[in-house]
TrEMBL record:
Residues 48-187 form the Phospholipid/glycerol acyltransferase domain. This is Phospholipid/glycerol acyltransferase domain-containing protein. The chain crosses the membrane at residues 7-27. One of its GO terms (biological process) is phosphatidic acid biosynthetic process. GO terms for molecular function: 1-acylglycerol-3-phosphate O-acyltransferase activity. Keywords: Acyltransferase, Membrane, Transferase, Transmembrane, Transmembrane helix.
Amino acid sequence: MLMVKKLIAETVGYCVGLSLAILFWTLDKLGLLKVTGWERLPKELKKIIIVSNHPSLWEPLALSYLFCRQYVFDFKRAPYNLPDANNYYRQWFSFLWWPIRTRFIPVERNVYSVANFMTVYRTILKVLDAGGNLIIFPEGGRTSSVVISGALQTSSKGKKLRYFSDGAAAVALSAKAIIVPVWLDGFEKVLPRGSWLPRIWRRCSIKIGEPINAGTIQLSKNSLNRLLEKTVLALADE
């Protein structure tokens, strides 16, 4: 039974990787998607944590594009996402995410319990310890969902970013992972709040930053978290 499930997962993964490659390559060639900093992405995508801003619900799919080769040729390295269970499982349009749902570790964002936190935390560490990869959005929700005054940081060019929760920094330090900061621009126009139909004709971009080795950096959890905020926000203005 386990072998059958593994075969199904790998078959789906192959199809997903190939489909993502074709879709986003086409968008790239049409000038609708611009990816910069490919050379900064580690050649060996192993024990990587992508840390990004979160302008829309489209990002888990879009960022999986960076791992198309892993989906097709090395499925165990295809990245896991930590989506909000409510947005990605309980909405009527949740079917949109089925292609990558096998790589979801759902988080109950509004359920604050030690047991829930530890379950997710142990699962994440298990993935990284096995050489797997993660995509994490430390803002804890979409940037536009902030309603509290002073909860946003602003870059010199006016880009907005919520203050990060320190979970990504804590996990990276514990697992001695490689953090790759990413800035996403324009995705809030691809899948605006309240919409379920991706507007893939809208222009957007993915900016990849310089990797940060959490295994060698001499920083506390809080200091690393502040560094990640600063680094991601700086990417916005590149």
